[in-house]
Amino acid sequence: MSDSQVEGAASTSGLGSRKRRWTELLAGRVKRQMYSPGTEQKLQESAVHLLRRHLNLNDLLLEVEGAPRKTLCLNQLIDPEACTNLSSSLIGSALRDQASRLGVPVAVLSSRMVASSITQICVSDGEPSHRVLLSAEQRKKLSSLLEVAQYLLAHSMFSRFSLCQQLWEVQGSLLLEVVWQLHIQNVVSFQELLESHADTQATVAWLFRNLCLLCEEMEASLYSDIASAMLSDLVQMFVLRGFQKNSDLRRNVEPEQMGQLAFVVLQRMLIFALEALAAGMQDGSPQHKVVKCWFGVFCGHTYDRMISTDSPKRFFSHTLTQVLTHKPVLRVSDAVQMQKEWSFAKTHPLLTGLYRRLFTMLSPEELVGHLQEVLETHEVNWRHVLSCVSTLVICLPEAQQLVKDWVARLLARAFENCDLDSMVTAFLVVRQAALEGPSVFPSYADWFQASFGSSRGSHCCSKKTLVFLFKFLSDLVPFEAPRYMQAHILHPPLVPSKYRSLLTDYVTLAKTRLADLKVSLENMGLYEDLSSARDVTEPRSQAHQDVEKAIAVFEHTGRIPSAVMEASIFRRPYYTAHFLPALLTPRVLPKTPDPRAALIESLRRADKIPLSLYSAYCQACSTAEEKKPESAAPGTKVEAVCAEGPLGPLAAALRELRAAMTDPTQYDVVAARVAVVSERLDAALGRAEEDGSSGGSQIQLSVLTPGLEQQEREVADLLLTCFCQNLIVASGFASPDRQGPWASRLATAMCGRRLLPVVLTRLCQLLRHQGPSLSASHVLGLAALVVHLAQSRSVLPEVPVGLPAPAEGLSVAEFLSSLLTFRTSETSLFCLKFCTAVISYSLCKYSSLSRDTLCGCLSPALVKKFQFIILRLFPEARDPLCPEDTADPPWRPLCRPSADWQQAALCLWKQRTFRELLKEKEFHLTYRDWLRLELEIQPEVDCLSDTERWDFQQWALHEYFLPKPSAAGGCDGDLQVACAVLVDVLIDFRQSSRSYNYSENSDLVLSGCPGNRDIFSRLQEMAAGLERGPAAPRSCSPPQGHFLFGVFRRRLQALASGWDVAARLQRQRELLVYKWILLGLPPSIVVGRPQAGRPAAPDCTEFFHLVNSELRNFSHGSALTHDLTVHFFRGLLIACSQSGDPSLTADLVLTACQTECPLVLTSALSWWPRLEPELRSRWRRCLQGPLPQELQRLWEAQRFGRSCLLPDTASPAPGPAWLSAAALYFEIQRAGKDRVKSQLERLGCQGEELLVFLFFFSLMGLLSSHLTPHGRPHQAVDTPKALDICAEILGCLEKRRVSWLVLFQLTETGGGLGHVLLRLAPDQYVRLLPFAFYSLLSYSDEDALIREDAFLHVAVDMYLKLIRLFVAGETSALSTVARSRERRGQGDPVGLITEARRFLLRSIPRCPKESFSNVAELLATSADCDPDVRAALLSRQQAGPDADLYREPRLF
């Protein structure tokens, strides 16, 4: 207390004006009081109470000491400089003396002294009070004070409770860091301090205020580490106490006080953050800093010390619940309208960051379950719920399926109980997840169709569920976006016909709403995402996207996309007004038709392009050809173009970047300069700001005809020129590893979603089409750019380039490597330069980094191409290497004007780091890789001569790859393995080379492919070497088959099965390559070699299997092609020449053909006039003697067939009957006769079975004339003649009363006709037998047919199969042929089905009762095929036993 205060106190007591000391006042007070036993205790309590009042402890201690003198005072205690010579024991002794003089406990006095000192420290800095951290000076003073406090506490001279009381009295000046220091120094814990305050609300307010200040100061403070530790400790305590499972804190206070306080503080901080987010705070504002810092406490490392408890998990779960239920003011209708604005990309990053941190503590199953529980038990904030769903499906891929399952359960519950809440939740969740794109979740249209488009949907249970569904959809109409209504209309729910009105009413309502919104269904794109965030797209811009997508689909499938065909019929306004104009954009047509040209031509042939529009397109393309501009390399007149115009600002920014890059002191500003470049790129391209819709995961561009708009090309040239020039300048004063980050940063700027396709397209033009014309600076600059793009491969999309690229696309690095080709000598030398530059730059740039980093910057394909070209061009590189060169990679020599590229390449080849790199498995040049690259070479323009090329191929095959172990990419010395790999690669190359040409040749002639000639010659040499091996001994195990058929079999098993056009064309193309390879190899491969010793039949199993399973389906009628047939018989003669008994060997093989592969024999009869002379001459020349018995049988069958057409008596038919029938049919074809009835009537009794087989072959001929009207040259019988031949044979059969219906009931089971005949016809012909059946029915005796028991079953079966063929589209080829004929009814499937239906409805009532015995099973399998035919069959089957009495009697 001050002197004036003492004087005032004395005057008021009436004791005069003399000032008395405090001891005198106390002494007088004691004398006037009566002593009692409790007086001393009361006096001490009064003194303590007085000390707790607003007294100045420093002045009080001075008064106790008397007059000022040199002694211990409070200032000495606090000031570190003044009390350096004072020990804690001395301070404790002084406090004990002073407490005894005052008559108060020393603990109380010490606590009051410490509290007063803390107050002075907190206010000593003079800074504003709205802070929580101490200054350095304050922290130093506090440290000294806490050392004293710890001493006092250790010697029981300190009261924690008293200190807490004193601190709460000065809480307005108390800094949070002081409280934290007290806690960590074990003076007073957080919990003790907080529990000592009786006013919980005041405590919460103080904590909330200080936590907000702490979060605000966190980022800008010089002591952020201290602030972070403070916040972490506070949060850990609050979470541990507020969310512990057992609420007993094991203290003497109320057990719930601390837990409730911690819970309330955490709750208040979260609410403050959520409200700040909802208010739309600005970045950098105090609120933003607080929210960002507070959300950061949810990081997992904050709770590392609490991992043994469940408190963090309960805290995270509670926080997630509070976020989802914060201010649930939005209604469901608001959510339906606004949820497109709540996608992951549009949600505030702080909120999505909070979700991600909350997800780390809970498993995906727990998250989905928690989300479901909150939605079922609380009113929710739909914005937070749906943004949480978006974050969930994006950040946790394993949660995507869980969300699908959850939605399925919601739908099941909704329809089971007509639960509207479950229905709303399911639709909102699905739509929200679909907003994130198909890579994350199926589109809404796909989900809606999958959920409601089939009879398996829950909505089909009853009328009640259907009404519930359409009532719900109708209620959504006023609020939902047009995209969803379009999806509902285009993919409507499956509804039984009797409830069709429900769907009709909804469609009418939705279309009315779309009309009000001015959205047209007709103008929708073909490939629009119906769940996209964008509601309305301009038809013109959408049409261009549809065209690109349709071209990509056509390029992969080879047929017109189904979406285009459907649009041409059902959405003709959009197709004709938008899609076709976008597709038929005039351009310079390429010499080789590209995918766009092929699609246009296919649409024209299908009559899907109006003739006038196509003519105008062709005229416009011709005009464009005349005005075709010349191409140029990047940098040509770029500076002049950029000086003025829209590229000026971009060019200026690039110049500033170069200035910063060339000055070593300005590397720190490179990032800022690149940011300016990125900002000006959008303006230079003339593009609007990117919308929120997510782009595709792949880049679409054409490798063969890459095209850019003029503005895009100028921007790309400017960027690439700048990059190349900068690299040359930088390399002049520093090696790549010391050039700083400018190259990687500029390359990253080129990787934007809009700019990257432009850059890649320009690189495609330069590297693939203009590579040899590029200068050295361009080669070096583009090589460095490729390295930096490869470094960013993990964040770049894939690039699909069509076949033969993998279906999943190529990475950017692999795509750029694929642009380097070796077709000519010029491109080979350019490839050598570019690969040398890329590898040298990588080795220099990343020499100090790890091997993995270096490997990540190099494309394995590029390294393999470098190995290939250097081994090919330099014979010295094929020799064993000397001790590896330790010199640096040859980057610096390449930057000189007179660089020797070949010497640099050889230097790189011998460089030690590069040789070590080649030891990595991914960089091994394998035998398969070498074959693929060698096949690209065009021999006529190769840089190697024919002799040099032969030497190189022989060295590579026999000296390098053949003895090399398979682990290193070789063949382990196995010549058969080498042949098998070569065949596999050769087939792939044939297929891929075709994919770039789009030839219209239906026969797929595989000739003229560059590079095949020499490699195929090597295959022939190696195959001949295998064939010259010793014959297999008799005792050895059965051979495993020839390697060639093993390759064929493995590849065929990998192909897609089915009879759709795409699958058939792919299989046909594959088989044609097989045939080309088979015919180029020795014929002995087909037949095999007989075993040594006793004569035995060679093993033809593999060839027979190939014919029966594959080649049969692509034969013409019942015969293989001539070259394949001749090849087989040449192989047979070779096998006979190697056998001890040639005739027996031939007879055994041909006898096996009768049962295992009859198609070989019918093929021989088909080509007999050309085959017989070669067979006889070879047999006489090599083997001598007469023809073997089975060959003689073929000659007799052919003679029989020829004699049947002569007027003389026919020679007897040799067995088996089907062989003679085949010979006769082929003679009829060759003779071109259409009237053979008289010749057929001359056949004896043996002719009945022969006529049945002959009728089968004529049916195959009829179908062949429909499917291939311009088939083999020797097949002169057209469709009318083929039909006449069938009719005459049919007449002969009916005249002899021979049943022919058995031909339409063939099966493989048993040993009947089907076992042989089904192996003589392609599967497509067998499936089309119903067409032939009803085509010939009008030529038969209807009354005779009806009397046969099997007729009705066959007729109904053929009718049902005919309808299935029509529905499946397999009669389309017949329809095309029919349209070209004058007689439209002839061969028209639609007309044939109509006539067949009439015939059945007319014949069913006339059939005898016995005919209906086997019809029931047909009706059971085809219930929905034709209701009229079904009704007629059931009516006749259920008729009474006397129904036949009313029929007209048949007397004769």
Protein architecture, described:
- The chain contains 71 helices and no strands.
- It is mainly alpha-helical and 1452 residues long.
- Poorly predicted ranges (pLDDT <50, ≥5 residues)? 1-17, 53-57, 60-75, 80-85, 247-255, 529-537, 628-633, 635-644, 687-697, 803-807, 994-1010, 1032-1039, ...
- Specify the number of helices: 71
- Gross morphology is globular
Give the distance, in angstroms, between the N- and C-terminal Cα atoms.
Answer: 148 Å
Helix content: 55-70%
- The assigned structural class equals mainly alpha
Q: Could you tell me the radius of gyration in angstroms?
A: 47 Å
Report the major sheet.
none
Strand content: under 5%
Secondary structure tally: strands: 0
Could you tell me the mean pLDDT? 78
Question: Top keywords for this entry?
Answer:
1452 residues, mainly alpha, 71 helices, 62% helix, 0% strand, disordered N terminus
Question: Would you summarize the structure shown here?
Answer:
Helix content is 62%, strand content 0%.
Note the topology.
Layout: H1 3-12, H2 22-32, H3 39-51, H4 57-65, H5 74-78, H6 88-102, H7 106-123, H8 136-154, H9 160-169, H10 176-184, H11 190-195, H12 200-218, H13 224-242, H14 257-279, H15 286-296, H16 311-324, H17 332-338, H18 349-359, H19 364-377, H20 382-395, H21 399-417, H22 420-434, H23 444-452, H24 463-476, H25 482-490, H26 500-516, H27 539-557, H28 562-570, H29 572-583, H30 595-605, H31 611-626, H32 638-642, H33 648-662, H34 670-685, H35 710-733, H36 742-749, H37 755-769, H38 776-791, H39 812-818, H40 825-845, H41 851-856, H42 860-873, H43 891-894, H44 901-910, H45 912-917, H46 927-935, H47 946-961, H48 975-995, H49 1012-1027, H50 1043-1054, H51 1061-1080, H52 1084-1087, H53 1101-1109, H54 1122-1137, H55 1142-1156, H56 1158-1166, H57 1168-1183, H58 1189-1204, H59 1217-1231, H60 1237-1241, H61 1247-1267, H62 1279-1295, H63 1313-1317, H64 1323-1327, H65 1329-1336, H66 1342-1347, H67 1351-1368, H68 1372-1379, H69 1389-1403, H70 1415-1421, H71 1427-1437
